[in-house]
Design goal:
6-stranded antiparallel β-sheet; single chain; Alpha-Beta Plaits; binds manganese (II) ion; Aminopeptidase; binds (2S)-amino(hydroxy)ethanoic acid; alpha+beta; 9-stranded mixed β-sheet; 2 domains; about 400 residues
């Protein structure tokens, strides 16, 4: 029997690990992430699942052929539901349907080191050796970080599963604005990202004449404008691009900045448009560096392709949604990235969304009405019933 109270209780308990006010901080392999993963393994065991922490830090509760999950690591300022909802919903359905379900919390979905690193490794798209060389923004490698969470076994073979279902919050405004309870995902957009370093000449802020400066921050400003202009003819209203991380060196009031490092990330549903955006962005960055007399280094591109969801599974979820929330659900694309993108390489996958209040996520005040969380759980359980 499905136990919504136990499900909400488990979500609240997980929220308590790394809690910051209403939100949570559990970066992949930080002490709170590790504490949460170990506790999860215990909860899996208590539910009759066979717990495994694999070498990449993914936590598995092995049971039946329907795999349900998401991630329990967070952004540097994360919400309490992003990722956790899918894992804890999977656990609740596993308890309700013994022998039907396995559960997983993939590691580093939020990209401390890569982008959806744990599921990328499990799906075979990234080797553990290559992952070990990935670094976070402070220079720590994935290989060094994962030593803090010793593996208890190898990851299960994808062949033991039939299906992957990932429940998640929408993280955008559509369902909340429409007063709807459930989203059935049609496809996940693709993402690309580069890290850029622009270098000029660090110098004295009082004595260096303006015309002799090679100011890295000025070059950054020009690059930002150049990217926006270059993309005007390439994008649609649904395309997005973000400069989300900037580090200025040495970042002091009386020093002309000598170096700036920043990320440029762009997302779109079309693989061809992602490619055209990349050409435009790289050219704009080179042009801005030349115009501001700075040296520039642009990293290799991190790339995840757009991923369509399995249409048969979408129909199963849609039937379940119509029973649990008649007339209050829709099919919709996902603008956020998910582990389902990688798992789609090895299994048929589908996703369902619960509304995000005000469309807020990747922020401490991310939230969802508890009735909507329970509705999503019931839709998931009904769908698993049909698939069993
Ligand atoms: O960035 C994303 O879309 C995901 O939440 N990691
Ligand atoms: Mn997520
Ligand atoms: Mn996220």
């Amino acid at each position: 029997m499905l136990d919504p109270a136990a499900f909400l209780d488990d979500l609240d308990t997980l929220r308590g690990i790394g809690r910051r006010g209403t939100g949570v901080v559990r970066r992949a392999f930080d002490p709170d992430d590790i504490r949460a993963r170990r506790r999860l393994a215990d909860r899996f065991a208590a539910a009759g699942l066979d717990p495994v922490i694999d070498p990449a830090g993914n936590v598995w509760g092995c049971g039946g052929p329907i795999l349900i999950g998401s991630h329990t690591d967070t952004q540097p300022e994360g919400g309490w539901l992003d990722g956790s909802l899918g894992v804890i919903a999977g656990l609740a359905v596993a308890r309700a349907r013994p022998g039907a379900v396995s559960v997983v919390s993939f590691q580093d979905e939020e990209g401390r080191f890569g982008a959806t690193t744990g599921s990328e490794i499990w799906s075979g798209a990234l080797s553990l050796d290559a992952a070990d060389a990935l670094t976070d923004l402070d220079g720590t490698t994935f290989g060094a970080a994962r030593c803090a969470l010793p593996s208890t076994g190898s990851a299960p073979d994808p062949a033991r599963f039939r299906t992957y279902l990932e429940p998640h919050i929408e993280q955008g405004p559509v369902l909340d604005a429409a007063g709807e309870a459930v989203g059935i995902v049609t496809a996940i957009v693709g993402l690309r990202q580069v890290t850029v370093t622009m270098e000029g000449r660090q110098n004295h802020a009082g004595t260096t004449p303006m015309h002799l400066r090679a100011d890295a921050l000025r070059g950054f400003g020009m690059a930002q404008d150049a990217i926006a202009t270059a993309l005007e003819d390439v994008v649609t209203p649904d395309s997005v691009w973000t400069i989300g991380h900037v580090a200025l060196h040495p970042n002091a009031p009386s020093i002309v900045p000598g170096r700036v490092r920043f990320t440029v990330q762009w997302r779109d549903a079309s693989a061809a448009r992602l490619e055209r955006m990349e050409t435009a962005i790289r050219r704009a960055l080179e042009d801005a560096a030349r115009a501001s007399v700075l040296r520039i280094d642009i990293s290799d591109t991190t790339a995840l392709p757009p991923a369509p969801m399995d249409s048969t599974l979408q129909d199963v979820l849609a039937r379940a949604a119509e029973r649990e929330a008649p007339g209050r659900w829709r099919r919709m694309p996902s603008g956020a990235l998910h582990d389902a993108t990688n798992v789609a390489r090895v299994l048929p996958v589908a996703m369902l969304f619960a509304p995000s209040i005000g469309g807020i996520s990747h922020a401490f005040d991310e939230d969802t009405d508890r009735d909507d969380l329970v509705t999503m759980l019931r839709v998931l359980d009904r769908a698993v019933g049909e698939l069993t």
